[in-house]
Design brief:
The protein has a domain at 63-117: NADH:ubiquinone/plastoquinone oxidoreductase, chain 3 (Methane Monooxygenase Hydroxylase, Chain G, domain 1). It contains 5 helices and no strands. It has helices spanning 11-34, 41-44, 63-80, 82-87, 89-117.
Length: 124
């Protein structure tokens, strides 16, 4: 195996990187130069599905929304670990089964803790 790389071996990668960067820079400059730059109140207002903007966007939001979102991501990622296990179930044998039972026990213990803390209760 040849591990003596010369700088010329990396030339195609460098050329492609330079061309990609140049394309991005040129595209941004050209669009800013030739694009329209008319400013008006209607154009600068945020557009939300055709609904008129009402109130301030900086109103406080309950932390429960964020907790539910974080918990969803957490448990969603945990479920992702079950797919490779299910695909390789036969190959992993009894040790793989015991490991998944332990994993599920820890996952359910965390879920039980969340329920006991009342994170998912909305009527408060």
């Amino acid at each position: 195996m040849n591990t003596n790389y010369l700088p010329s071996d990396f030339l195609p990668i460098i050329v492609q990187f330079v061309l990609a960067a140049a394309f991005i820079v040129v595209t941004m400059i050209v669009t800013h130069r030739i694009g329209p730059s008319r400013k008006s109140k209607a154009k600068d207002d945020p557009f939300e599905c055709g609904i008129e903007v009402v109130g301030n966007a900086r109103t406080p939001i309950s932390v429960k929304y964020f907790l539910v979102a974080i918990l969803f991501v957490l448990f969603d990622v945990e479920v992702i670990f079950m797919y490779p296990w299910a695909v390789n179930f036969k190959k992993l044998g009894m040790l793989g089964f015991i490991e998944m039972v332990l994993f599920m026990a820890l996952l359910l213990a965390g879920f039980y803790y969340i329920l006991r803390k009342g994170v998912l209760k909305w009527e408060e």
